């Protein structure tokens, strides 16, 4: 009887030791992951912090380098860059292009997503797969045809010549997200509305759109941010400085004979701050929109 008791105690001890070892391994793994993620975060964040720091330094202090925190912080760099960059004009140009692109994207691809998710029509599956396949087509491969087509249409060099390609480029992901979001809406709501006499347009605008607001905001964000920061097609299309957007205005600072890096970083800060604030303000809707689309 004593031998059995000792054996049972030893088994319980071994079980506790095994559980403690497993717990120690889990803690070690979590600590390692936390350290790696922190290191990655610091490496990723450092260029942005350097940009912010340089925006509050003079040229001499930027060239000397060696420290992140300005020794003699000044607002003169931001002020001179604001005036030199003609910020208000370029800002309004960027705002016009971005707002038009976002509005057209939401109108066109919300309707397309509703059709793919709710309506039944010939070729729906094949057409939806075609939109998804466009995700794998690099945008640079269609730049030359876009420029040639816009030249024939007479819109090359105009803001509308930017808006239309941007709207077209956002088609695959926008359709995918909106289709997934509309698919999560219970079909019983549509059937009840049809019984009450509502037509398809009213069902779409009064039932489906309000219920998929996070997805709409998500599509607006993923459209607005790259449109605001777009440089390549804008550089190819626009020749008149009066039509320049912010990225092109920033490029004029970089093309000087003697680049002033403090002004360049101040200009970059002016360009990125609006989209950062926009994302922070709508982050909650952005996450909910992605989750809803994935579930759909």
Give your account of this protein's structure.
This protein has about 300 residues and is mainly alpha-helical. The protein is about 80% helix and about 0% strand. It is built from 14 helices and no strands. α3 crosses α14, α8 (about 170-185) packs parallel to α14 (about 260-295) and α13 packs antiparallel against α14. It is flat. The model is unreliable at about 1-5 (pLDDT under 50).
Number of strands: 0
Percent range for helical residues?
A: over 70%
Shape: flat
The radius of gyration is 27 Å
Strand content: under 5%
End-to-end distance:
62 Å
**Which class of secondary structure composition applies to the elements?**
mainly alpha
Brief write-up:
By secondary structure, this protein is mostly helical. It has helices spanning 2-54, 59-64, 76-84, 87-118, 124-133, 143-153, 160-169, 171-183, 187-195, 200-211, 213-229, 232-237, 246-254, 261-295.
């Amino acid at each position: 009887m004593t031998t059995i008791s000792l054996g049972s105690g030893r088994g319980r001890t071994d079980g506790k030791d095994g559980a403690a070892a497993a717990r120690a391994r889990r803690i070690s793994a979590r600590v390692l992951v936390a350290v790696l993620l922190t290191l990655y975060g610091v490496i990723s964040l450092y260029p942005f912090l350097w940009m912010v720091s340089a925006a509050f330094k003079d040229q001499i202090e930027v060239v000397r380098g060696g420290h992140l925190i300005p020794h003699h912080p000044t607002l003169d760099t931001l002020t001179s860059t604001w005036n030199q960059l003609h910020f208000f004009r370029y800002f309004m140009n960027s705002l016009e292009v971005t707002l038009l692109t976002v509005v057209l994207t939401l109108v066109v691809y919300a309707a397309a997503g509703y059709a793919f998710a709710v309506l039944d029509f010939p070729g729906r599956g094949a057409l939806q797969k075609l939109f998804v396949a466009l995700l794998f087509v690099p945008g640079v491969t269609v730049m030359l045809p876009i420029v040639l087509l816009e030249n024939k249409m007479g819109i090359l060099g105009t803001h509308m010549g930017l808006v239309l390609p941007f709207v077209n480029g956002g088609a695959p992901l926008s359709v995918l997200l909106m289709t997934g979001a509309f698919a999560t809406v219970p079909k019983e709501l549509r059937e009840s509305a049809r019984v009450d006499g509502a037509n398809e347009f009213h069902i779409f605008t009064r039932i489906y759109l309000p219920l998929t607001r996070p997805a709409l905001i998500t599509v607006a964000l993923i459209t607005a941010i790259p449109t605001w920061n777009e440089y390549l097609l804008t550089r190819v299309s626009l020749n008149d400085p009066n039509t320049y957007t912010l990225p092109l205005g920033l490029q004029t600072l970089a093309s000087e004979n003697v680049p002033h890096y403090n002004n360049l970083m101040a200009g970059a800060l002016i360009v990125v701050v609006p989209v950062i604030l926009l994302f922070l303000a709508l982050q909650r809707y952005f996450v909910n929109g992605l989750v809803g689309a994935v579930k759909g």
